[in-house]
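Sanity check

After download, print the first record. It should look like this:
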Amino acid sequence: MSSQQQQPDEFPLPDTPGDLPIVDSHLFDDLLPAEAAFELTAGLRGYREPFVGITEDGAPRPGLYRLNDAGAAPKAAVAAAKAYLDGLAPHQRVVGNLPMDAAEWRLWTNALPTWHPKGMRLERLTEGHRERALAVVEASLSPAGHAQVRAAMALNQNLGELIDDYRDTLTEFAYWFTVFGTPSPDAPWGWQLMGHHVDLHCVFVAGQVVLAPVFLGAEPTIGTGRFEGIQALRDETEVALQFRRTLNPDREHEFLMGSSLRAEDLPPELAGPWNGRHLAGAGSDNLILPPEGVVAASLPADQRDALVELIRVYLDRLPPAQAERTLALVREHFDETRFAWRGGHDDVCAFYYRIHSPVLLVEYDNHPGVFLTNPEPARYHVHTIVRHPNGNDYGRDLLAQHYRLHHGGHRTS
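Expected structure tokens:
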């Protein structure tokens, strides 16, 4: 059995129906305790702030991202997006296809929205039209990336069936899909898929694909019942453990942030039930995050290679040509890339890790139960985040370069 797996009959199920104010995929934050409402409305509070990006000190570093053709021209994605949009009725297209510079790019949540989202909710579409929407996602990602997204969506419904509750919310297609801009092989455009445990922002600009921010999670990570055989975020867990186990104990002072994820062993700000340890979730577009951890370039060659394999797990969600280009960019900054770990690394302990480069931020966290009832973080509840620090989340840095080059600095929709 994989070290992240747990037998389905061991999942801690609630004894009584839940009382969270969630109805039809909407979270009524005014009915929550104040602390929970504050944490779960971060995305709504922050998206209208001027975008800066995740930085080390509040000032984005210029010149990190280069506008060039990565050999990832989105022909299939363009065709799929046009087919999807052509099927929308006019009143649907008004909310399902927004301008490229729409503020809603930055309005998302990994929990349930406390506002009425733009975009089309997949479960409200006909089956054929929903498949056309999902075909855009499939054409934009690698096969592995697409499979990961669809597994997380399926496991969302598995959770609803497992606890036999919130059945109007914990479903496979309770996700909002929005196309931004006009799909084109030449002009920038993109899409957002948003909902519980699945938040992707995909931008096409100058032959490149930017996939950030990305939030993928699952509770639980292994399917049960009719979902048996579906699994999510296995490599994110297992490859990380393999790498962690190679690190020299004599260097733990460089990368180990703490040996336990139990609430009693954590600083209060990292022990809450909503965000856990991760810092770069919804509403954190302008996070200031000083680097922590061991410097990648200081590791022996075999450990550097093992860290690259872990980075590949996240980048391989991209089309292959773009994944290689992005990895090459990360390698250029290995002397500034840091790896940090919190928790254990045996076959059962929960853990958190962070990879922080000037051009890539990855977070992984094991989480307490939200719908399951485990009070402490567990391997079967995983959150992962991918960001492009220093201003390239949502492709912003590359888009700015494109508009300066082709449109005198003005954005077009």
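If your output differs, re-run the checksum step. Summary of this record's structure: The chain has eleven helices and 14 strands.
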